[in-house]
Structure formats: C-alpha cells, structure tokens
Write a structure and sequence with these properties.
Blueprint lengths: L15 H4 E4 L4 E4 L18 H4 L1 E2 L2 E2 L3 H7 L7 H13 L2 H14 L5 H12 L1 H5 L5 H17 L24 H7 L5 H5 L6 H15 L5
Antiparallel strand pairs: 1-2, 3-4
Helix pairs in contact: 4-5, 5-6, 5-8
Protein name: 7689_t:CDS:1
Length: about 220
C-alpha cells in the first residue's frame, strides 16, 4: 500500500483501518468510501471477585493497597522501621525527632502514621520526663520540634499525614520557649565527670556554674 498510495505512508498501523478496508476476495486494501469504522471491544469476565484481589494467604486485607503491599508489589517501610528501631537504642529523643523529620523529607514512606505511632513515645520521652504530662501537649511539642526541622527545607508538618499542629497562640498549649527549654536532656555521665576534675578545673567549673545560677554572663 505504501507504494501504491502515498497517503498510506502517513498512517500508523493502528490508524490504517480508519481509512482503508480489507477485501478478502482480492486480498487487497481499498480506500474507504465513507468515514468511520466499527471497532471490536474485547471483554474478559473474571472468575474471581474483588475480595479475592484483597485476599493474601487466606487473609482478607482491609484495602487494595494493603493487599499490594503484602504481595510485594509496593515498597514498604521495613528499612525505615529498622533505622528508627536502632536509633531508639542509642540516640536521644531530639535526635530521633530529627531522624524522623529527615525520613519525611528524603524518603517515600508507605505508612507514615504507623511509623509515627511506633516511635512517638521515644520522640516524646524527654518532654514526658520534664514536666509535660499530658499526651496532647507532648504531641504538640514533638510536632513543633519536627516542624522547625522541616521548615529549613521549605516544608511543614501539614504536608504529611501527621496529627494537626495547633496554632502557637492557643492558650491551652505551652509556649514554644518553654518547650525548647524543657527539651534539653542532661546526660548523667557528663555530670559525673565533674567529680574527676582537677583543682584548677574545679575552680573554673564552680565559677561558671555560679554565674549561670545567678543568671549572669560568663
């Protein structure tokens, strides 16, 4: 056809039946006299229903996404969980919060809420120990710390599936300055080092601590 009809050279294979018909007896293509053609639509009737798609190893998943994750079609958060689990063993709460925020920014997390729920206690531990007993206040304190980290990368906690960060002027929430002060965690091992200072070091240490306690500049 490309030799006989120059117009045929401009058509793709799928477009050819729109402009030409096949003559079975002569076994040649003929240009259509009228436009349009009837196309065949193939239909497949499965012998399974949607619940079968959500069933993995005999267990019916809640959602299709969960089913796809169980089958290994989607990425999961196993390595992210392992990373945070290891951090909980050795790192301070503020370091865990920073790590969590880093994962938010640079990783594609599959189930963010599950990671939040599993690691919240570790991220809020120092707040709980330093005068913020209410869980809602702890949540706000953790969110604000994470939000400060995210803002350095032009993001906020509202960009993610996390609990709502309440406005800072809300009277029910603790002031940010107080939360920042309460977030500091003193390492007992560091304090114990004061007992092994020599005489000169002890004098300097006592002078500095005295100035701090009197709120004077060093």
């Amino acid at each position: 056809m490309n030799i006989q009809d120059p117009d045929a050279r401009n058509l793709l294979y799928a477009e050819f039946p729109l402009y030409y018909t096949w003559n079975k007896s002569k076994k040649v293509w003929k240009r259509r006299k009228r436009g349009g053609c009837i196309r065949r639509i193939y239909m497949v009737h499965p012998n399974e229903n949607f619940d079968d798609l959500k069933t993995v190893d005999g267990v019916v998943c809640t959602t299709f996404k969960e089913s796809a994750q169980q089958r290994g079609f989607l990425k999961n958060d196993d390595h992210h969980c392992q990373c945070l689990n290891k951090a909980r063993e050795f790192q301070m709460p503020n370091q865990i919060r920073n790590l969590f925020a880093t994962l938010l920014i640079f990783e594609d997390l599959t189930d963010l809420r599950q990671l939040w729920n599993e690691n919240f206690s570790a991220m809020a531990k120092n707040f709980a120990l330093r005068g913020i007993p209410e869980r809602q206040h702890q949540i706000q304190a953790v969110l604000r710390h994470i939000n400060q980290f995210l803002q350095r990368h032009s993001k906020t906690v509202t960009d993610y599936n996390l609990p709502e960060l309440m406005p800072e002027h809300n009277s029910e929430e603790l002031p940010m300055t107080l939360i920042e002060e309460l977030s500091y965690q003193i390492d007992p091992e560091e304090l114990a080092k004061a007992d092994i200072l020599n005489e000169a070091q002890c004098a300097v240490f006592a002078e500095v601590m005295g100035l701090i306690s009197r709120n004077e500049k060093v």
